[in-house]
């Protein structure tokens, strides 16, 4: 049985997690928007490096240069953030997940972490985006959220640079925005280390693995896959300091020292594509 202190320690000592500190600032938001109005600042402001693997997404041996967080933000991608809400209850650590409604424009009916696109009119940081979207989608107020850090970003099939924001949350009564969310549920985080009711295939977009987890909660079946599954796998490895019961990727070595190696491969792929675009304009 893990304690909150042990969970935080494992998260904050992970080399793929950047700690975050929240600082209050004055409100400039209108009615219906966040009331806590906290400004987030990533620690280590000297642009911490994301070390890319020697293996490319195709399994070939290549040497990628290091990318700083500033360089990642300069990618010509739309920005988005998701919250990874972790709840410790009854001695078990759970992750909160949502099932998107059929009314949204993309990813209809899919399991997802709460989150969405960066809004230049009200978001200063990726943390602001994750907190705002989570409150809008499931009614989780920031007062019940303790942001700990951010995980290595990923690239979605829709062309977003997605930053996972890690947080410990308190129990709350969900208030769903039915236009965006059909359901909300919890799964034990350790579930994403298990091969039970799990399979994977290979994405044709970035040559990355697509993991599928099937779970039944309160008589309803949910399928967690794609970027959401990759984030949950990495978080489970970080928190429990254990390897998965399955191979995460056939070509890329995913270890406890680098549980986000697949994320890195996606970023390096995008870096190559960006370099091609720049070179074509020279």
Tell me the layout of helices and strands.
Elements: H1 4-12, E1 17-24, E2 38-42, E3 49-50, E4 67-68, H2 69-73, E5 78-89, E6 92-100, E7 111-112, E8 115-117, H3 126-138, E9 145-151, E10 154-155, E11 160-169, E12 181-188, E13 198-202, E14 209-217, E15 220-225, H4 226-240, H5 261-280
Parallel strand pairs: 5-11
Antiparallel strand pairs: 1-2, 1-9, 3-4, 5-6, 5-8, 6-7, 6-12, 9-11, 10-11, 13-14, 14-15
How many β-strand runs? 15
Fill in the CATH topology: Nucleoside Triphosphate Pyrophosphohydrolase
Shape: globular
Radius of gyration: 18 Å
Q: According to CATH, what is the class?
A: Alpha Beta
Question: Overall mean pLDDT score?
Answer: 81
Total individual domains: 1
| Fraction in beta strands | 25-35%
CATH superfamily: Nucleoside Triphosphate Pyrophosphohydrolase
Judged by helices, strands and strand pairing, the structural class is alpha+beta
The biggest beta sheet reads: 10 strands, mixed
Helical amount among residues, as a percent range? 10-25%
GO molecular function: coenzyme A diphosphatase activity; metal ion binding
Pfam families: NUDIX
GO biological process, one term: coenzyme A catabolic process
Domain Nudix hydrolase: 77-209
């Amino acid at each position: 049985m893990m304690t909150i202190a042990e969970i935080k320690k494992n998260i904050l000592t992970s080399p793929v997690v950047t700690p975050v500190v929240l600082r209050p600032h004055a409100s400039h938001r209108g009615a219906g928007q966040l009331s806590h109005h906290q400004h987030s600042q990533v620690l280590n402001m000297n642009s911490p490096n994301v070390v890319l693997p020697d293996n490319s997404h195709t399994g070939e041996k290549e040497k990628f240069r290091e990318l700083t967080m500033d360089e990642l933000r300069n990618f010509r991608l739309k920005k988005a953030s998701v919250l990874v809400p972790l709840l410790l209850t009854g001695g078990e650590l759970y992750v909160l997940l949502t099932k998107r409604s059929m009314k949204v424009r993309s990813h209809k009916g899919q399991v997802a972490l709460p989150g969405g696109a960066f809004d230049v009119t009200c978001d200063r940081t990726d943390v602001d985006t994750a907190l705002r979207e989570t409150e809008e989608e499931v009614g989780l107020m920031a007062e019940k959220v303790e942001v700990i850090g951010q995980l290595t970003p990923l690239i979605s099939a829709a062309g977003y640079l997605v930053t996972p924001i890690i947080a410990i949350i308190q129990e709350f009564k969900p208030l769903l925005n039915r236009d965006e969310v059909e359901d909300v549920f919890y799964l034990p985080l350790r579930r994403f280390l298990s091969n039970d009711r799990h399979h994977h295939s290979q994405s044709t977009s970035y040559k990355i693995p697509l993991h599928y987890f099937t779970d039944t909660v309160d008589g309803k079946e949910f399928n967690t896959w794609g970027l959401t599954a990759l984030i949950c796998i990495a978080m489970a490895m970080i928190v429990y300091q254990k390897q998965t019961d399955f191979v995460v990727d056939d070509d890329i070595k995913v270890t406890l020292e680098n549980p986000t190696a697949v994320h890195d491969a996606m970023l390096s792929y995008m870096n190559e594509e960006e370099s091609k675009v720049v070179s074509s304009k020279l």
